[in-house]
Amino acid sequence: MAATCGTDLRGIRDRALLLLGFATGLRRSELVAIEVEHVAFDDDGAVLHIPRSKTDSYARGRRLRVRPGPDPAACPIASLRAWLVAAPTSSGPLFRSVSRSGKVGQGALHPRAVERLVKRKAGLLGLNPNVSAHSLRSGFATEAATRGVSEMTIASALGHATLDMARRYVRCLPTDAG
């Protein structure tokens, strides 16, 4: 999906949003709630502060490590840096609207905008029309499971207290049966 994003301001934002969503497994509401000041880059990539989530009723927040990917064209860190350079701001919402004229808005994207983005990009690729922003989250879990990441680690990354809930996100793993 990231490969379908253009090189204009909206395309740079969309690439960063898609790659960060897939690399972290965050909910769409969590993605759009990230503020610029919640992002800290270091030699190992970046650390995101997620101030609250659906399963964090006390708003304790959590920190999430994001590592760079091996392919610069699909690297969440490189795409995030590119977005911050293209739409420089030192505070406030990380992911903002971009007008048709290329002006960056002040407010955060709405979670439904993430949903529409994923559906639009999936459509360009001829993917199942039932794909949704939630597919980034389940894609993260499925990819992690495919790579042999433990269920406990996947559950923790998704912010789930139980393995049963995390297992619901893992889709269609290949089997040895043939």
What this model shows, in words?
The chain starts with 8 loop residues before the first helix and ends in an 11-residue tail after the last helix. A hairpin with a 5-residue loop joins strand 4 and strand 5 (104-108). The chain has 178 residues and is α+β, with helices and mostly antiparallel strands. The strands form two sheets. Strands 1-2-3 form a three-stranded antiparallel beta sheet, covered by helices on one side. The mean pLDDT is 83. The chain has one domain: hpI Integrase, Chain A. The longest helix has 16 residues, at 9-24. The protein has seven helices and five strands; from the N terminus they run H-H-E-E-E-H-E-E-H-H-H-H. Helix 1 (9-24) packs antiparallel against helix 3 and helix 1 (9-24) crosses helix 5 (134-146).
Structural class: alpha+beta
CATH homologous superfamily grouping:
Intergrase catalytic core
| Estimated helix fraction | 40-55%
CATH topology, which one? hpI Integrase, Chain A
Strand order of the largest sheet: 1-2-3
Count of distinct structural domains:
1
Distance between the termini: 30 Å
Low-confidence regions: none
Total helices: the number is 7
Element-level helix/strand string = HHEEEHEEHHHH
CATH architecture: Orthogonal Bundle
